[in-house]
Inverse folding.
């Protein structure tokens, strides 16, 4: 990995490089995505089936687009029993963590007849997109579905691409069933997002769409936002390791590569105040890369977006970490909890040498759907809050309104909204 001195210039150049990975930078795909969305909105099932044939090679129809109970049962038989048990354990951890995020309605009453409050209501219908193709992502199923179930969402619809034979990865189906998905459809890509956003004869319209996908999926979610809600427009994966001279270089190297293997656009960054650690990590990265199965992807990722930055001190390192606002932030310092207190911007923070990033991806419980591309400055991980809405509650008695009604009339009149003023004033006509 390249080793650079952390300066204002290198920090600026790094951020510019990372922003190039944002889905918002791939505008050349937008026209095609918009065409797909328009066709699905107009032709509904016909367009969905046509695009599925074109892109995935699968022949689907109204009778075969939905995964049957028989297919789910077969999926259990075709998934390693040990993996089923691991998914159950992970599911329990994820549910327990998200249960602590639940919010409740509240009401505050006063003796004069004023009642104010907040009513919390779960969304009715949520769509979950799960990537397919050659890989399977049962962990993504659990992370997107369980917070919705904890929130109380009434209906969860999952879409995921199928093979040319019309089959869905069995581990993905098993995870969906374990998590409590109500309906599963064998559709992927922008056409799946459009189907969830507008509804077709076979696929129901939902209120919100969550889940990661390729550039077409990301841009489709962006395009339908407003017709439905979305979680975020996810960019490529990223990890930033903040380490001092006490860190184990093999651990640091291994953790950096855990994200670099995702794809060629993934980012892996180490910021340290130790030149010695920087050099040791670079050597360990080379050793690990040579023996890992996704060697070519890792090499391309590190070439494009892999950096080791050497800061003057940990104070400068922390400032840079906050500016980058990484999706995953590992802190491997002598006092990781103390360092954490200085962190303002990060999707998920991993503390100490035994809390590596894959622990969060698969098992610990906190959600692995995280803000990317610097959006951790203002976005949070996916959670229960993403699947609820809040309504304000206002109730006043006549006795409570009378002493203040003239104030409201004056306020409304000052804005030349005389009908507003009259709506209050009419209640106190002589």
């Amino acid at each position: 990995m390249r080793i650079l001195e952390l300066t204002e210039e290198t920090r600026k150049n790094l951020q510019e490089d990372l922003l190039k990975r944002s889905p918002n930078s791939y505008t050349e795909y937008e026209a095609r995505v918009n065409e797909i969305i328009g066709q699905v909105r107009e032709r509904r099932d016909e367009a969905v089936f046509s695009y599925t044939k074109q892109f995935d090679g699968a022949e689907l129809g109204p009778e075969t687009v939905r995964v049957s109970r028989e297919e789910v049962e077969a999926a259990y038989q075709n998934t390693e029993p040990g993996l089923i048990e691991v998914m159950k354990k992970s599911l329990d951890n994820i549910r327990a963590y998200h249960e602590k995020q639940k919010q409740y309605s509240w009401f505050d009453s006063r003796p004069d007849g004023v009642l104010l409050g907040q009513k919390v209501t779960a969304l009715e219908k949520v769509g979950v997109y799960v990537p397919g193709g050659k890989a399977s992502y049962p962990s993504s199923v659990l992370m997107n579905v369980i917070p919705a179930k904890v929130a109380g969402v009434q209906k969860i619809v999952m879409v995921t691409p199928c093979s040319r034979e019309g089959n869905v990865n069995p581990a993905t189906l098993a995870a969906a069933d374990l998590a409590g998905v109500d309906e599963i459809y064998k559709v992927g890509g922008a056409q799946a997002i459009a189907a969830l956003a507008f509804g077709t004869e076979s696929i129901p319209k939902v209120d919100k769409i969550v889940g990661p996908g390729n550039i077409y999926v990301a841009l489709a979610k962006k395009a339908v936002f407003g017709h439905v809600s979305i979680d975020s427009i996810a960019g490529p994966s990223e990890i930033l390791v903040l380490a001092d001279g006490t860190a184990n270089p093999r651990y640091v190297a291994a953790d950096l590569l855990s994200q670099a293997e995702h794809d060629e656009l993934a980012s892996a960054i180490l910021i340290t105040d130790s030149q010695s650690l920087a050099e040791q990590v670079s050597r360990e990265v080379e050793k690990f890369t040579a023996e890992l199965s996704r060697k070519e992807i890792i090499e391309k990722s590190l070439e494009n977006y892999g950096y080791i930055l050497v800061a003057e001190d940990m104070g400068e390192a922390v400032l840079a970490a906050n500016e980058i606002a990484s999706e995953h932030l590992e802190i491997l310092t002598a006092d990781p909890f103390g360092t954490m207190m200085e962190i303002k911007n990060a999707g998920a923070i991993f503390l100490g040498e035994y809390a590596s990033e894959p622990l969060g991806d698969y098992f610990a419980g906190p959600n692995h759907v995280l803000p990317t591309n610097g959006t951790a400055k203002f976005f949070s991980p996916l959670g229960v809050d993403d699947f609820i809405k809040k309504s304000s509650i206002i109730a006043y008695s006549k006795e409570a309104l009378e002493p203040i009604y003239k104030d409201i009339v004056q306020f409304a009149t000052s804005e030349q909204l005389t009908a507003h003023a009259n709506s209050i004033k009419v209640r106190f006509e002589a």
